[in-house]
Amino acid sequence: MIRLEHVTKEFAPGRGIFDVSFTVDPGTIFGFIGPNGSGKSTTLRHLMGLLAADGGKATIGGFDCWKQSKEVKQLVGYLPGEISLPGDMTGADMLDLMQQLHASDPARRQLLLKRFPFETKTKIRKMSKGMKQKLALVGCFMKDAPVYLLDEPTSGLDPLMQERFLEWIEQEKHAGKAILMSSHHFPEMEKSCDRAALIKAGRIIVESDIHELVRSSRKTYTIVFRTEVEAAQFAMQVGVEPKRLEVSFQTDETLSLNQVIAYLTQYDVRLIRPSADDLEQVFLHYYGEEESS
């Protein structure tokens, strides 16, 4: 449903997006992960037909995102990363306008307002960041589009609203929607996405099934020993610095877990604590490799 093929847009030497390619199928959620300025929002703006690429091609539903942007916009519910709405309108006024523009079902609007409640009579300029984000979410999903492009969708939401958002997009996924979501919030990406791509300096450095990404990262373990002498001896074997009774290290191609277990038979071990497998570890793993190469 969503397809980018070698899309490149250079704003200045080394700034922009370069050779970006991926696809998002109906009934899937694709995560787009990267630091600020890495090219996530630029990529989404190309898909919305707001920018023309220097090279490559972007399509949604088979329509060219630049040449057929009118048809593309009819298929897409878009949530920008920076919410900018008319300050003198109330939330209800804004939703009324969106409902007219997209011929949205009033019942769907009410369902979304129950899921993401806020005071609709408040003027937008008086709303908190969280209220504006809920207004934007309701307006985006009210369209009931087959494709959603979501740029940092949970920004400003409290934990309860974040969980409700994840439940909602899971429902939309099962309804056959194609969802592309950028976020810095690693736990929500791991919970919700089927596939993900990491982008840095405008280039995708890895793309994979979300669980494969997590499994492929180096695992960090912390071992607690009975004595500092034992901790120091083990730290020397695995090539790290001890912290009194504790030693933290990562397993990789050169240090397997089987090797570590063999070493540990020599010592009086009090505790073995593995780190949680999450996307933040994947992020640090891949970005660390890029910086050291």
From TrEMBL:
Pfam families: ABC_tran. Belongs to the ABC transporter superfamily. Keywords: ATP-binding, Nucleotide-binding, Transport. It comes from Exiguobacterium indicum. Residues 2-226 form the ABC transporter domain. The keyword Acyltransferase does not apply. This is ABC transporter. GO terms for molecular function: ATP binding; ATP hydrolysis activity. SUPFAM superfamilies: P-loop containing nucleoside triphosphate hydrolases (SSF52540).
